[in-house]
Amino acid sequence: MSPESIPQPERGLEGGPDTGPRNVELDRQNPDLLAPPETDAGTLPNLKFQALDDGVEFLLVFDDGEFSENSTFMISDFFAHTPKSVIAKNFGWSPEHLDRLPEREKYIFAGQVPPPLERDQVVSPTGDVPRSFKHRLLAQEPEHFNGGRARVADSTNFAASDTISAALVEIEPGGLRELHWHPTDDEWQYYISGRGRMGVFASSGQNRTFDYQAGDVGYVPFAFGHYVENTGSEPLVFLEMFRNPKFEDISLSQWMANTPPQVAADTLNLPRRVVESIPKTKTRITA
Ligand code: MN
Fold first, then answer.
1. For residue 180, which of 29, 108, 115, 121 sits 20 to 30 Å off, Cα-Cα?
2. Which residue in the list 170, 178, 229, 240 is annotated as catalytic?
3. Which region holds residue 101: left if phi is over 0, alpha if psi is between -120 and 50, else beta?
4. Residue 245 near residue 155 (C-beta atoms within 8 A)
5. What is the pLDDT of residues 146-162, one digit of tens each?
6. What is the CA(249)–ligand 1 centre distance, in A?
7. Distance of alpha carbon 90 from its chain centroid, rounded?
8. What's the CA-to-centroid distance between 78 and ligand 1, angstroms?
């Protein structure tokens, strides 16, 4: 599809042009909603949430869907809503220290530039935290596959992350995050760059296909089969995130390859030698 063309709800000889009114830019971002692959069927919920216009500068991931960043607090707000007598008692401060405390929350405000961190760092007599709360994912050596790379961070290499696991996935143009599912939890995705398509299979003959681009959020309900294909000309980079201490995925091909082959051969009307030639190790991203 060229950038000038107007996508239509047509698949082969089926469908016909939509005369509008239309949001053509939105349709260009979502060709699989406009003209779904013929394998799509049923009434799956929406699993795509549109990009914010300006993207994001940081991403907060909580392990509780009821929690929001509005439930984090500013200490200036805490001070403003605590009786001064309690503050004085808590810190052992005299009343004159309390006169200039902010009367309400301070959010973004001017302050003095602090000295360099190495001069201003406090050494706690109780030592550092035993498990670091910081993990540099990009400093981690990726797992390499035919069609891209993946870096997994979970409690096995980032001990403090004992309720959330994640994978940073990079898929080369034309590559595919293989058909798989997760045995532990729902998957939440954030698309960082590139363009991709995800097909989600919900069993009982139901499947739905969504298109994603940088800034979009994707979602895969627990145990639904899915794949993510790079449909663009740039690498597709996205995060897979789970509310689980351990990242776990089940590869359809690895699972089939390690099952007695005649069963899969008969189930899929395939020659036995084709089933036997499936790699027995996991290939998360194929070319
Ligand atoms: Mn997945």
1. 29
2. 240
3. beta
4. yes
5. 999 999 999 999 999 99
6. 7
7. 42
8. 40
In a domain, 25, yes or no: no
Looking at the fold, whether 170 and 281 belong to one and the same domain comes out as yes
Domain residues for the domain of 100 are 70-110
pLDDT of residue 253: 97
Q: Are residues 156 and 88 in the same domain?
A: no
Q: Is residue 39 domain-resident? A: no
Task: Say how many CA atoms lie within 13 Å of 157 toward its Cβ.
Answer: 15
Distance CA(97)–CA(84), nearest Å, equals 10
Compute the distance from residue 189 Cα to the ligand 1 centre, in Å: 9
| pLDDT band per the 50, 70, 90 thresholds, residue 5 | confident
Q: Within a domain: residue 48?
A: no
273 alpha carbon – ligand 1 mean position (Å): 28
Q: What is the CATH number of the domain that holds 252?
A: 2.60.120.10
Domain count, the chain: 2
Going 266 to 267 to 273 to 276, the CA torsion angle's sign is negative
64 Cα: distance to centroid of ligand 1 (angstroms)? 20
pLDDT at 3: 54
In sequence order, what are the residues at sequence separation of 6 or more whose Cβ sits closer than 8 angstroms to the Cβ of residue 243? 63, 163, 164, 185, 186
Active-site residue 57, yes or no? no
pLDDT tens per residue, range 60-112: 899 998 988 888 889 999 999 999 999 999 999 988 889 999 999 999 999 99
Cα–ligand 1 centroid distance for 182 (angstroms): 6
Do 283 and 159 lie in a common domain? yes
